[in-house]
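Q: what sequence does this backbone want?
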């Protein structure tokens, strides 16, 4: 296999093959229908061929093309099943694997970044990568002190590839639309471009990971592997075993999926409060479900022990801190206060908060009651003691907001997303997408009360009853 394509013209041709391929398959499909195949069968074959090409092109290019594929993959749960089904497997592959670098390239990177005697740093080094992602791949190894480690290597030319891909992909947003109907891809690409420098800086990543590893050391629910060594384009961290969240989504028990969902929500809201950092790449490939410290794995409990009891000790392993949002004070108080005010049914109160924070521009006047009606279905998971996140629920929300004929769509177009909330918004939506893929029942309100600033009323304020009791 050849090295990562770096020349802009080569990468542009490959990216252009996506929309050209769509057109070619449409012609192929018409021929099949003329030949007698039913429209339904042809449509399924077309979707499968498109999914196959999507993985092949984005996977081979890595860089920004694959990063976009990973970001898109967490939103597939919002799509109608007849559209999402054929793409799900291909997009899921992008969370965990991609065509790897040749061994000679791996050796060259290690020699350049760790020195000619790099092998002396390791007792063992597996030349076959255990994971390959958008800008780097991971090898399992044994550090010279005997520790099991993960060695993350950045692809040569990854920075150039990221910028080139995202610039080209921004030109194809209309043609890429059919891959994710109802999803606005252009802002997603723009936000990914803004994060390129951080994504490539392994020193910043090491700092963020060390901060999390120190804070969560000994935590009963969350495991963050510590940093062992860092140099330019090489990051060595402790190795953690566990079940990738993509496998839990596909084959996990109900109890395992619920446990994974609860811990994912807990990490999302507790991380900024405890570290001042928000993990900003929450796709399933970055999480593992780990056994309890006593070795129980949620499968082989004692006789008579329920599945829920066995899953209760499972922990969430968190990987890849290349993209974080720095929030020294934790998540903004306004988010919690606005959420609580919305649940209280205080239309004027939440409208004033949104206007003050810039979600409603000064030049626009909206009906506060209409804004409240727009928000309440979205925050439904925070109403009750527990909520089951399903693909059906998120599809209903996506359809309500995306339908140009609906009042929700018209109102949503008039709302504004301030730049300081852009990454928080994407992370929240992505996490909700993963929870829906898990089909997890989560006590979300419990996590909000514990970790979200501003959600609980100030001392002296009336303690709001759960919204479910008032509706």
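A:
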């Amino acid at each position: 296999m050849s090295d990562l394509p770096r020349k802009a013209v080569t990468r542009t041709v490959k990216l252009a093959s996506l929309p050209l391929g769509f057109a070619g398959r449409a012609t192929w499909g018409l021929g099949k229908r003329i030949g007698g195949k039913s429209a339904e069968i042809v449509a399924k074959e077309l979707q499968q061929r498109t999914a196959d090409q999507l993985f092949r092109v984005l996977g081979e290019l890595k860089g920004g093309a694959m990063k976009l594929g990973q970001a898109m993959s967490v939103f597939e749960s919002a799509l109608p099943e007849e559209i999402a089904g054929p793409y799900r497997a291909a997009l899921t592959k992008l969370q965990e694997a991609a065509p790897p670098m040749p061994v000679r390239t791996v050796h060259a990177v290690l020699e350049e970044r760790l020195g000619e005697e790099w092998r002396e740093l390791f007792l063992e080094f597996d030349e076959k990568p255990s994971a390959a992602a958008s800008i780097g791949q991971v090898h399992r190894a044994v550090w010279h002190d005997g520790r099991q480690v993960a060695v993350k290597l950045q692809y040569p030319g990854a920075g150039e590839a990221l910028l080139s891909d995202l610039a080209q992909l921004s030109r194809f947003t209309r043609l890429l639309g059919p891959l994710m109907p109802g999803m606005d891809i252009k802002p997603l690409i723009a936000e990914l471009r803004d994060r390129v420098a951080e994504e490539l800086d392994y020193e910043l990543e090491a700092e963020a990971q060390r901060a999390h590893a120190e804070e969560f050391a000994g935590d009963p629910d969350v495991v963050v592997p510590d940093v062992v060594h860092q140099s330019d384009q090489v990051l060595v961290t402790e190795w953690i075993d566990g079940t990738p969240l993509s496998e839990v989504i596909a084959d996990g028990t109900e109890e395992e999926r619920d446990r994974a969902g609860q811990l994912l929500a807990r990490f999302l809201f507790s991380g900024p409060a405890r570290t001042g950092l928000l993990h900003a790449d929450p796709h399933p490939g970055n999480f593992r479900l780990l056994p309890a410290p006593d070795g129980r794995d949620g499968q082989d409990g004692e006789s008579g022990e329920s599945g829920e009891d066995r899953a209760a000790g499972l922990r969430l392993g968190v990987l890849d801190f290349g993209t974080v949002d720095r929030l020294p004070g934790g998540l903004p108080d306004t988010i919690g206060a606005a959420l609580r005010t919305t649940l209280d049914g205080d239309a004027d109160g939440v409208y004033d908060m949104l206007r003050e924070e810039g979600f409603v521009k000064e030049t626009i006047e909206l009906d506060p009651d209409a804004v409240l009606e727009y928000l309440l279905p979205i925050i439904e998971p925070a109403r009750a003691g527990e909520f089951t996140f399903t693909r059906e629920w998120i599809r209903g929300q996506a359809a309500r907001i995306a339908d140009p004929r609906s009042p929700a769509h018209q109102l949503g177009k008039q709302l504004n997303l301030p730049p300081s909330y852009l990454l928080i918004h994407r992370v929240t939506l992505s996490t909700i997408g993963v929870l829906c893929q898990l089909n997890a029942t989560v006590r979300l309100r419990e996590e909000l009360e514990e970790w979200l600033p501003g959600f609980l009323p100030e001392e002296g304020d009336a303690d709001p009853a759960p919204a479910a009791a008032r509706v």
